[in-house]
Design a protein that fits this description.
Layout: E1 5-8, E2 15-16, H1 18-31, H2 39-45, H3 49-58, H4 67-80, E3 87-88, H5 92-101, E4 105-109, H6 114-121, H7 125-128, E5 133-134, H8 147-155, E6 163-167, H9 170-178, E7 182-186, H10 194-197, E8 204-206, H11 209-216
Parallel strand pairs: 1-4, 1-6, 4-5, 6-7, 7-8
Antiparallel strand pairs: 2-3
Helix pairs in contact: 1-3, 1-4, 5-11
């Protein structure tokens, strides 16, 4: 099925944000005299946001910390240096060009706070052209709840079953399924062990943006 709309996750799908997300987490850890996260830890946990990164960094000490306060510190540091190392994935801009040529609507549905999402996208004009942008706090629920996806589809006047949702973690697949959308795994992102992806029961798995682009036709 050729979709009428393609919705994308942001971190690990359109943008490699791990360098800046990891740096923000490491600044919080430094405030507690804890060692920094390794590169492997950063790339494993970035798609799970502040919670994932800080839980990895604090380890057994995490249960003794105030998660709300830690998240606030993380978001502060992240907002101060939001685009020092972040880059758009190779092939994404070509994919978006293909969507435009095919007259397929596209948008962004992320669990990054909406304010920080717009702050980050200001550095990437091509991504700012998204026809809908939904953050974690845009609506009452964030992914894997289907509400953000359903509202994005409604904004674009597209039936959910005519939408693809592209993301790099299992929760993205769960959100798509709950919204009655086709789930697409961005295998170029922070998916983790490739052997486990088949367990997500996604509708499509692509290892590069170019593969997804080719699937959509010419």
């Amino acid at each position: 099925m050729t979709p009428s709309t393609v919705l994308f996750d942001l971190d690990g799908t359109l943008l490699d944000t791990a360098p800046d997300m990891g740096e923000a987490a490491n600044r919080v850890l430094a405030e507690f005299d804890l060692p920094p996260l390794t590169r492997e830890q950063i790339y494993t946990h970035t798609s799970f946001g502040a919670r994932g990164l800080l839980t990895a960094g604090f380890g057994k000490q995490a249960k003794f910390q105030d998660p709300i306060a830690l998240r606030a510190r993380f978001l502060y540091h992240y907002g101060q240096a939001i685009c020092q190392g972040t880059q758009v994935y190779d092939g994404i801009e070509a994919l978006l060009d293909r969507l435009s040529r095919l007259k397929i609507c596209w948008g962004i549905v992320t669990n990054k706070p909406e304010g920080l999402t717009h702050q980050l996208l200001a550095h990437f004009p091509r991504l700012q052209a998204a026809q809908v942008i939904v953050g974690a706090d845009t609506y009452a629920h964030a992914k894997p709840h289907p509400l953000p996806l359903l509202e994005a589809a409604k904004t674009l006047n597209c039936a959910p079953e005519r939408c693809f949702y592209v993301g790099d973690i299992e929760n993205d697949t769960l959100a798509a399924r709950a919204a009655n959308m086709q789930s697409v795994v961005a295998g170029w992102g922070y998916t983790g062990d490739p052997a486990l992806i088949s367990n997500w029961e996604a509708d499509h798995i692509f290892t590069t943006p170019a593969q997804l682009s080719a699937f959509l036709g010419s």
